[in-house]
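Reagents: none. Just compute today. pyridoxal 5'-phosphate synthase.
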Amino acid sequence: MIFAPGGTDANFQAQQYTKGSLEISDLVDDPFQQFHIWFNHARSQNVHQPETVTFSTAELPSGRVSARMVYLKELDDRGFVIYSNWATSRKAADVASNPHAALTFWWHELERQVRVEGEVERLTSEQSQIYYDTRIRGSRLGAWASEQSKELRSREELERRVRDVEERFEGQEKVPVPDFWGGLRVLPKTIEFWQGRESRLHDRFCYTKDDISQSEWKIRRLSP
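Predicted 3D structure written out:
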């Protein structure tokens, strides 16, 4: 049904990446600072929603992998933070059985990607409340109303649940974060910075450390 997409007209050749290059001299020692530099550059170059990231998990013992698009909401000197439902969602079930996860950022306008792999930890309700309070009221109430990933009989069932939550918190500006909802931090052991190059001879540099408690990172160039 699909064969060699990406070319133009009768040309089946894939698009060439020509917008940049990457050398080890371009990198700083700390991958979190390096990500911060790239992220700010992406924003300055009007990359569409550079915080959009694929969050990948795997269930054990089956090994079944699942992935979904989410938003990066925080970066600190320990890791990358996303927010979600951690009671009923597929990702919740995955990380309950397997504490390892991956993030993949793709910034098409710059022909760059960043790949992150590591273990995960939940933020406390107190920590999650800080971000939760920044959301519009509808999103805060929606977190209470949605049993994420559970089957719905109809759209009306979801809307009824939302109305029930609206009544519960009517006249209450401060809505508490649900205990089943909040932040998850990916604590990286590996962070790769990838710059597209012609003929698929991409520049790839990988920061690694054997244990998340270590402070120093090793940087290696990888074959494309």
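Helices lie at 31-44, 90-97, 125-132, 137-145, 155-168.
Action item: order primers for follow-up constructs.
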